[in-house]
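Q: How would the structure tokens look for this protein?
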Amino acid sequence: MRERLPEYLKRPVIDTDTTRTVRRILKNRCLNTVCENARCPNKNECYTKQTATFLIMGNVCTRNCRYCNIGCEKPQPLDSMEPLHVAQAVKDLGLKYSVITSVTRDDLPDGGASHFAECITNIKKLAPDVRIEILTPDFKGNKDSLNTIINAHPDVFNHNIETVRSVFKIARPQGNYDMSLEILKYVKDNSDIITKSGLMVGLGETYEDIEHTLSDLKNSGCDIVTIGQYIQPSKQHLPVAKYYTPEEIKELEKLAEKCGIFHYQIAPLVRSSYRAAELV
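A: Here is the predicted structure in token form.
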């Protein structure tokens, strides 16, 4: 039996002219968002601020992470017009800060790095004043793919560690904890791009586990960290081992600062791109 969701993790449904406008623009441009596909609890808040996190390269993933609501199936071919459509939507929405993420595409030779780069290039052409944050998969640690991203030069490179080492293989069986750290370090060592990562809590980790992960991120040169509560998307996903109270989550700020991380967003409903512009 699933434990009842605490009240402080619930969000109201918001339906306004602004949220409808955002949905219409996304639909007209045939775009996916992580807001919808990953069932983000902050979706309506973001839509009221006329923003969204674009999900590129389709809405099905080649990996089956046990916490994620996005389905694992055979992906469709890339839409060559998607980078332009993303840029047009950024312009239509009047964004000052855009966030682009993707499903994992292990079927592509470069993991989709060139598609990310095209999105960045198109946004810079159509909306040159917009800052760009990308949240990428691990590209299997491929340095050529990372160089493609570095050369496109987003303002922020985000790659989520997602969880602590002790839980990692359970939650992300096709991922690699050390590889994710190496990716962040490679981007930091080879560019002036701001680096960012995030993790969920509530999967059975200890405070010591969290501290070790924060130290690992700091040692990888990570500039910004986000931490939020894991919420089980369905009965088929990993169960929640613990709901942290707001007070317990607040304590994680002290852990971050102890590890030398002073730029963070830590709260129960924080997700990777939540209030990203404010944080940067």
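Residues 247 and 267 are 9 Å apart (CA to CA).

The chain has one domain: 7-279.

Upvote if useful.
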